Structure formats: C-alpha cells, structure tokens
Amino acid sequence: MGTPRSVIPLTFAVFILICIAGCTGISGDPAEGSSPKAASSADDLYSQAQAAMKDEQYRTAGMLFEEAYSRYSDSGDAEKALAGRNEMFRANRTILEYPFNKTGAEADLMMKVSGITDAEIDNWLSCHAQKIRSDGETLYYEGISADYLYANYNLLRGTADKSIDFGCLARYAIQNGSPSSLSGGSLPYGNPVYYTGTEKLQIPAEMLPEIGMLKIWYPLPLETESQRNISVVNLSDEEYIVNGPVTTGGIGYVSYEIPAENIDGDLILTADIGYTSYEQIFEVDPDTVEAYDTDDPEYLLYTKSARNIEITDEIQERAAEIVGSETNPYLRAQMIYRYIIDTYPYSHTPHLSLDTIEPKTAESTYLFTTGHGDCGTQSMFFSALCRSLGIPARTTGGYQMLLSDTPGAHFWAEYYIEGYGWIPCDPTVAEIADWLDTSDENRELFKESLSSNLDPARFVIQKDVDAEMVPSFPDGAVVFRLVLQKPAIISEAGEYDLDLLSGDYFSIRLEAGTEI
Questions:
Q1: DSSP three-state, residue 227
Q2: What is the Cα–Cα distance from 500 to 154, expressed in whole angstroms?
Q3: Last residue of a domain, which of 95, 114, 134?
Q4: Are residues 220 and 363 in the same domain?
Q5: What average pLDDT does the structure give for the chain?
Q6: How many domains is the chain built from?
Q7: Residues 363 and 244 in one domain
Q8: Which of 98, 201, 390, 458 can pair with 269 through a Cys bridge, CB separation 3.0 to 4.6 Å?
Q9: Residue 270 to residue 237: CA distance in whole angstroms
C-alpha cells in the first residue's frame, strides 16, 4: 500500500508514471461563511462541528472539532477530548482524498494527460470525475487524472508497456492455463510456490501518545483452499498479545493492547511469516454443477446483503438483465464477470471517505451509481450481483506479486459453485490487457483465464471484506474497517491519526523459494 489513502488499489509501476508528484492542486480557501464561529465553550464548538458535519461542511467541521479537542484537553476533560479528537479525524478523513478545487483539477489534468483539450477537461469534470461537496464548494478526487487515462485506455498503450510486460503478466494465465501445466498437485490446485518473509511496523516515537492504550490488529496470512502451510513465528511483544495469532477462519491477524507508557522509543512490531500458495485452475462442466444447499450457514453468509456488498433492488434488476434467461450459476457468474470488465474501466476509489462518511454508501453501490471502482470495488460489485442471484460470492485478498516482487495491495473475487468449490476471478487484472500492446487473441485468452483461474503470486489476508476480528472494533472508533492490509490502530490519546498513518510505516518483504 503506497499511502493510507490507497488501501485496496492494485499497485502497478505504471501508476508512478501516471501519477507523477508535482501539481497537487489544493482545494483552496474555505467557502465564504464557512469559517468557525466564535464560541464561549468547548461544548459550543463541538455542537457547531456536529451541525457542520450534517450540513456537509466537512472542512469547517474538522476545524471546529480540532478547537474543541484543544479546549477539552486544556481543561483536563480526557473523555470529551478523545471524542473531539475522534470526530476531527472523521471529518478530515471524509475529504482527505479530495485535494483539488476546479482550478487544481484542471491543472492536474493538463499536466498529466498529454494533449487533453479544454472541452475534454470540462466534460470529464462535469460528467465523470469523482467529487464531493464541502463548505459550498466542489472538491475533486486525487486520482482524477489517472482515472481519465484508465477510462481512455488507448492513451495508456505505449506508456504502460514500458512498465508492464504482457508476457510476464500472463505467464500463468496463458502459458500455464491448462491442466497439463500443473505440477506439485492436482486440479484445481497445483504449481505451489513457498513464500517466506517479514512484516514490520515501525512508528516513530514522536508520533506516539505518552499515555493510554494502543490497540492494534496486525495482518497475517490466512489458511485457505489455495494458501496453506501457514507459519507465523518471532512475533514481537508477545506479552501484549490479547488474541492470536489467528490464521484460520475469515481473516488472519494478531491483536495487541500495548500501554503507551511501556513503549521505549519507536513502536516496532514484526512477524516472520511463511506459506505455500497454489495456482488455481478450474475446469468446470456446467452440466455437472450441483444444486446449492440453501440452508447451509456458509451459503447464507455469502448470499446476504452486507455493509459493502449490498443487494439493492437496482442491483438485483441489473443482475437479472445481465444473465437473461440463463439459469446455470457457473455460466451466470461468467456473464457477470464479462459484464464488469466490458463495462467498467478500472479507476481509483476514495475508500477512506466511503468508509467514514454517513450515511454509509456501500462500495458495491458506489460503483453501480458512479461507474468508478478499483480492484476491491469491482470485486465487491461482482459479489453483490452474484449474491442477488443466489450465487455465493465474496471479495478476497491482501497482496499480489504478479507485477513485481514487491507485494502490492490487491483484492479479487471468488464465487462458489457446488461440486467444484470456491472459484477465483480477477476482473481488475483482466483489464490490464486493454492497456498493453498485444494481440486481440492474447487479450481474450488472458481475460478468459482470469474468469476461473488464478496465479499463485498472492498473499491472502482475508476471505471477505469487513471481516470480524476478536476483539472487535469498538462502536464509534475511527478505524478503517473495510480491509486489513495494514495494521489497524486505535489510540486512547495523542494527536496523530495512527490508523490512517500506519500504512506509511508498515512493510512486507516476501521471497519466493522452495519449501523445505
């Protein structure tokens, strides 16, 4: 994960070329009338901030909550100070991914999209760009230029090829995409790769609170059908572990509770990990697909509407339109996969804002209504469409090493077919073929393979988004709930949003080798 504001996106080298640091285009001064009002007490400021949040004056709300937090702290009211700080974090997270006003957005597009015209900029900003209203002003998403290029992927060809080699990308999907290519196993799992490495979190001492408890949920590899032989050793500070290490069930993690006053210097947590990852190649005969046991608890779990995989009337209607008269669940899932990769170009997604803002918008619904979604959002939308038809589906992931030896944050989807099991598909990686100069035949083979096969260059942390852990996140805590690709942190004191910043101080090093 490059930044705490890019939690799910598949990390490509081409992103560096597209999203060059330079014109950051700040959103400008607060709109007229949005500055904090004079208040005689911290309680007054807090109430004003709450009202500002309801009125979509997020910048103003953040300033008011910050001032309330400061006054509560000065008066020694720790409980109210914590509430003010948390609400300040929440207000800031809502708009943090939207740094541009219109002028800044125009400048960013002009700088990063070669040859773009004024008319094309106006059309993109008016009709397609991701944006939010705050303090009477329209703010634009930080990935506005990259999203334009993804939507117009012909512009990527030539540039993307300098960073991504199609032969390397497709080394499993095309070269190894047949049963004869499997070794070290049998269909659907073979070609095992053993990964070993180290996870490390190191937060500088100056960012840590002096008092209170730090509650940390630390990601670990998870035992799945395609990821086995999990090893977790040399965990730091075992005396502060309250649960785990957990490597079975729905999510891999270990949870800590560390008194801040017991930390000497930087906070450093490490874990040495290992696992065997298998390539997945499914050969499905639609005529042999069995009926679901609709009373099975797992069937019920993965066909219900959820926080970010939402089944709405509109999504049910769209799913029915996609599959038409087809009744076979495997063929239905294939049709949904093709619909997504043919209809919705990859784009970055404001996960932090979506995870924070109320009322909550599910990620699947966000893609359906805006047309924007990255790997996680596309997979959640796929899962919602499948679930609406009674096909169990989930959004699985953690990291991928397909494009680089360095793990890149990534999610994909799985759908369950009775008689075969959980079948993977990766609509986002499939779309990369459209960015690269290769033959139409290769593109089609690549996309077809990723509808029911998956490479072993993966690191799975969780089987589905919004996975439950023990202890669970407290109600009202400001913590990223969608995925655990970096440590989740809740602090009882201190001015830094450590949960937001933890991704900047977390690293995963993995090496592929031969299992001993």
A1: strand
A2: 35
A3: 95
A4: no
A5: 91
A6: 3
A7: no
A8: 201
A9: 9
**Is 15 a residue whose pLDDT tops 90?**
no
Mean pLDDT lowest among 1-5, 68-72, 222-226: 1-5
Rounded Cα distance between 142 and 98, Å, is 5
Determine the Cα–Cα distance for residues 218 and 484; give it in Å rounded to an integer: 8
Q: How far is CA 280 from each of CA 16, 180, 421, 477, rounded to the nearest angstrom? A: 30, 13, 11, 38
355 and 494 within one domain = no
pLDDT of residue 24: 29
- Give alpha helix (H) positions in 96-184: 102-112, 118-123, 144-151, 166-169
Are both 441 and 493 inside the same structural domain? no
Give me the mean pLDDT over the 242-267 stretch.
98
Report whether 97 contacts 4 (CB < 8 A): no
Looking at residue 238, its pLDDT comes to: 98
Q: Measure the CA–CA gap between 438 and 435, rounded to whole angstroms.
A: 9
Flag whether 26 is in a domain. no
Give the whole-angstrom CA distance, residue 450 versus residue 458. 14
Three-state SS annotation for 178-200: CHHHCCCCECCEEEEEEEEEEEE
Q: Considering only 6-15, 43-52, 149-158, 431-440, which range has the smallest mean pLDDT?
A: 6-15
The C-alpha atoms of residue 136 and residue 202 are separated, in whole angstroms, by: 39
Same domain, 200 and 171: no
Q: Which residue has the higher pLDDT, 37 or 239?
A: 239
Domain that holds residue 397: 164-175+284-462
The reply to whether 113 falls in a domain is no
In tens, the pLDDT along 96-114 reads: 999 999 999 999 999 999 9
Kindly state the DSSP code that residue 504 receives in the 8-state scheme: G
Cβ–Cβ < 8 Å for 397, 378: no
Q: Are residues 321 and 359 in the same domain?
A: yes
Question: Residue written as tokens 């949040």?
Answer: 53
What CATH number does the domain containing 350 carry?
A: 3.10.620.30
**Long-range contacts, stretch 122-130, CB < 8 angstroms, 24+ apart:** 124/148, 128/371, 129/105, 130/347, 130/349, 130/350, 130/370, 130/372
Q: Are 71 and 41 in contact (CB under 8 A)?
A: yes
Last residue of a domain, one of 75, 95, 115: 95
Please report whether residue 425 resides in a domain.
yes
Same domain, 368 and 455: yes
pLDDT value, residue 185: 62
Joined tokens for residue 166: 């199609």
CATH of the domain at 49: 1.25.40
Q: Are residues 437 and 452 in the same domain?
A: yes
The 10s digit of each residue's pLDDT in 117-160 is 999 999 999 999 999 999 999 999 999 999 999 999 999 988 88
Tens digit of each residue's pLDDT (9 = 90 or more) over 348-376: 999 999 999 999 999 999 999 999 999 99
pTM of the model: 0.92
Residue 331 belongs to a domain: yes
**Which residues does 111 contact at the CB level (< 8 Å), separation at least 6?**
20, 22, 23, 145
Q: Give the pLDDT of residue 32.
A: 42
